[in-house]
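Team,

Forwarding the record for the chain on the shared tracking sheet. I've put the sequence and predicted structure together so nobody has to dig through attachments.
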Amino acid sequence: MSTTPRPDDAGGQPDLIVAARDGVTTLQLNRPQRRHALSLSLLEQLDEALAAIAEDKTVRAVVIASEGKVFCSGHDLGEMTGRSEEDYQTLFATCARMMQRVRQLPQPVIARVQGFATAAGCQLVAACDLAVAAEEAQFATPGVRIGLFCTTPMVPLVRNIAPKMAMEMLLTGQPISAQQALSAGLVNRVVPANQLDAAVSELTDAIVASSPLTVSIGKRAFYDQLSLDEETAYQRAVAVMTDNALRHDAQEGMTAFLEKRSPDWTGS
């Protein structure tokens, strides 16, 4: 899969770099001069890239990454002042669509967080299925400090961490450390910066080793049942697991286990 890069307005470099290797596609935010801020153009590019990945059966996992001291600083405030109601609606709706696409993607998405993740950048981490952070990483929803409450970042944030902690982040704008994010459930692992890529690879390797069909069935079922009461969740889970068990990959996996051999996944 490839996308046509669009040059960033400041440097002539693509503001999203798409790289694929061994079943893993990396989407690298590439606006260092703007602290990897999510301009409308970058949001659109991410949305388009994710839509293409959803249809690409060679992609088994996705990593969202950047370089430097900032993972993502949120919306680009330089293009947000003095806009019309329609402009704001378009920007926030595009962002919401992209964040939801991360969740709806058949493939798992991992945030590789090497630095600050603020506002919509924190939202992006929360929207990902998994997140690995360097020890130096910090997370914040500081919109309240500039008069613009982080209402859309709040949506996935409160679905990751306890409501009172989320509310404290939203009301004070104070950052939390990587270790606090780990304790809160916002990230899965915290490692030294020089081990960040290895930690991400450990997760992607495990994902790629499993049936892509089974992974996609499981990811969808996970999010589908979250908002259901326990009885309804079990009903949904029974139906999904029954369907899963009838698929070729499940039969192959169980047979391979009994025969003490590696399974041959077909994605069916």
